[in-house]
Amino acid sequence: MPKAKGKSRRHKYSYNLNRKRLYRSARRRAAPRIACSHIRHAWDPNKSVAQNLAEMGLAEDPNKAVPIPKKLLGTEVETDGQQPGKKIVRKPYVVNEMELEASLPEKKSNTLSRDLIDYVRYMIQNHGENYKEMARDEKNYYQDTPKQIKRKINVYKNFYPEEYKNFIASLKPEKMEVQ
């Protein structure tokens, strides 16, 4: 297969091209990537990052926003409550929406896999509380020890307490019929 043309020859450097200007204009046009939707909607692309954050009441530099008190020979230096050049917050709704979102309770998103749930239910259904018997079961593909199986069952109990109670309650009538 022949080589692609132009790959083997030496590339010429263009001395007439102003790379600084190209880089600067591309950087100016690119808007910062903002993860928070509240900030993204209030962002003004014509203003600098510092101006945008100051309008929203957010700090550009956390070290300047909450200064660390300097200690001189074991005594603290006291400063006035006023800060020089304090900015006016024009978009306070951004901070309010972010505080409201942060105060919402975190929803529980952790779940167990369907395979693990089926495995635990099978073991409980066939062996009850006998973990040694569960370890010898042919469905124990990963060769879990009795303690590992017990741990998996406890995890299932903690994740789905209501479902576990209903499952155990449904097993009791079956055992009474067999006896």
UniProtKB/TrEMBL annotation:
InterPro entries per the UniProt record, alphabetical: Ribosome_biogenesis_Nop16
Gene Ontology biological process terms, A to Z: ribosomal large subunit biogenesis
Keyword set, alphabetical order: Nucleus
Residue ranges crossing the lipid bilayer per the database entry: none
Matching Pfam families: Nop16
Gene Ontology CC terms: nucleolus
Location relative to the cell: Nucleus, Nucleolus
Main localization, broad class: nucleus
Family per similarity comment: Belongs to the NOP16 family.
PANTHER family: HSPC111 PROTEIN-RELATED (PTHR13243), NUCLEOLAR PROTEIN 16 (PTHR13243:SF1)
Protein name according to UniProt: Nucleolar protein 16
